[in-house]
Amino acid sequence: MALKRMDNVGIVVEDLAATIDFFRELGLELEGRATVEGEWAGRVTGLGDQHVEIAMMRTPDGHSRLELSRFHRPTVVEDHRNAPVNALGYLRVMFTVDDIDATLERLRTRGAQLVGEVVEYQDVYRLCYIRGPGGLLIGLAQELR
After folding, report:
1. Closest listed residue to residue 144, CA positions, set 127, 128, 131
2. Is the pTM of this model over 0.85?
């Protein structure tokens, strides 16, 4: 059996509305919102009875999605947002943008903070990491060729 595709990357957030607004500003589209709750959902996640608000965000090309989740029940038990980039586990999502400077300017109005600096890699990319809503780590890349 062959792998067909990657459907989405899930991110747990504190403020769903602010995070949706942030990713809209970046250029993602809100595909839909829903509430997932009950014992059946807990059988999938192993969390038991749960109540989660979710929002599915889609990239403009339609190939990638972020599933943003805000847990009402059970409460969040760990926080990895301040982990350094060499921490084990899932860490960040990287997006390619047309103009990294203009994107940073727009996202700063939504609270984004540059982690280090914008750097150039071998005349191929300009790259940076930012902290978005609730401290989410997000990478931005601008192709130079």
Report:
1. 127
2. yes
Bigger pLDDT: 42 or 95? 95
| Cis peptide preceding 74, ω within 30 of 0 | yes
Query: Contact 23/66 with Cβ under 8 angstroms?
Result: yes
Closest CA to 134 of 112, 103, 117, 118: 112
Q: pLDDT tens digits for 62-88?
A: 999 999 999 999 988 888 877 777 887
Query: Which one, of 54, 66, 2, 1, lies nearest residue 28 by Cα?
Result: 66
Q: What is the residue type of 114?
A: L
**β-bridge mates for residue 22, sequence order:** none
Q: How confident is the model at residue 142 (pLDDT cuts 50, 70, 90)?
A: very high
Comparing C-alpha atoms, which of 47, 44, 90 is closest to residue 72?
47
CB atoms within 10 A of CB 20: 19
Continuous H helices in 5-120: 16-26, 39-45, 100-108
- The gap between the terminal CA atoms of the chain, to the nearest Å, is 37
Location of structure tokens 């949706």 = 20
